[in-house]
Amino acid sequence: MKVLITGGAGFIGSNIVHYWLDNYPKDIVINLDALKYSGNLDNLRDIEKSPKYKFYHSDISRYDEIEPIFKQGVDVVVNFAAQTHVDRSLYEPNEFINSNIIGTRNLLEACLKYQVKRFHQISTDEVFGDLAINDKHKFTAETLLNPSNEYAASKASAEMFIMAYLHTHHLPATISNCTNNIGPYQYPEKFVPLAITNILEGKKVPVYGTGKNIRDWIYVIDHCRAIDVILKKGKPGERYLIGSDHREINNIQLLSKIIKVMDIPGDWMEFVTDRPGHDRKYAVDWTKIGKLGWKPKYSLDQSIRLTVEWYMKNTRWWKKIKSGEYRKAYEKIYGKNY
Ligand code: DAU
Q1: 215 Cβ closer than 6 Å to some ligand 1 atom
Q2: What is d(CA 272, CA 299) in angstroms, rounded to the nearest whole number?
Q3: Any idea where the NAD(P)-binding domain is (predicted)?
C-alpha cells in the first residue's frame, strides 16, 4: 500500500511516519511537507534513506505542487499538514486559512480525481469550542462544531469541506478529533515542550491566566495507533474522537507533574497575561473508537516521563530550534523571549 502522509516532518506527522514504517514494512510511505517553521527533517534522519520512504518538499496550498505526487498513484492520504498553534493563529490567520482550509480542499480535489481509496483528516477537539470548568459533559461524535479561536475555525472549515465532498462526491473520507498530544519531536512552542526545555535552560515557564484551564493529554503513539485503527476499521463518512484515560487535569497540575519528574530545584512557574479567548476545558468521549478495539496504552505519568526523557536526551534537536526563528515569534506573543 502507498500511504501519503502530509505534514510528515511535523510533530505528529513524523511520529506516524516512524510508526508506519516500523509496523508496515511492506508499505511505501510518502511524506509531503512544505517545511514551514515547524516542519523539521531532523525528525526523520534515521529513516530518510529507507527504500520504503519518499519525501517531497511541497505545499498542500498549491494544487500544482501536489498533483504530480497523486499522478504516481496513492492508496491512502492522511492529512496532518496544518498550522496548529492557537497563539500564532491570533496574529497570522492567513497562514491558517491557506494551509488548513485551501490545503485540505486541494487534497480533497486530488483524492477525487485520482480515486484515492481513503482520505483521513487529522482534526482537533478544538472544533467543538470549550466546556465550562465544572461541566461534566464530554465532546462526542455528535457534538456540533462551535470553534472559538482562529485556528479552530480553520480546522472546522476544513471539516465542512470534507462533509461537502462526502455528500456531493461520495469521497471515502474519515475525520478524527484528538485531544492534546505530547511526546518526541513536538515543537517547543506548545506548553509541554516549552515547559521542559525552559526548565532545562533555567528559565521560568509562562502559565497563562489562572493556570486552571483543563486539557486531556495523550501520548502521541496512542494517537498513531488510533489512526491505524480508523484506517483499517473506520467507516467512510464517520468521525472518531480520540482521548486519554486520565482524569482531566489543569495546567498547574500538569506543570507540577513535569517539574516533579524533572527534579531540578527552582521556582519555575510564572503567571502571565491570559491568551485572548482562552478555551477553558476540553474533554473527549472516545467510546466510538473504543468499539473498534482501540484504547490508550500510556498513562499520564508514563507519557510525561517518556516525553521528559526524550527532551533531556535530545538537547541538540530543540536547542537548534530555540536559538532561531522561535525567538522572533515569542517576542510577538509575550513581548519577551521565553
Ligand atoms: O486539543 C488539541 C489541540 O491541542 C491541538 O489541536 C492544537 O494544535 C494544540 O496546539 C493544542 O492546543 P492548546 O492550545 O490546548 O495547546 P498549547 O500547548 O498551546 O496549550 C496548552 C494549555 O497550556 C492551554 O490551556 C494554554 C496553556 N499555555 C500554553 C502555552 C504555550 C500556557 O499556560 N502557557 C504557554 O506558554
Answers
A1: yes
A2: 29
A3: 4-305
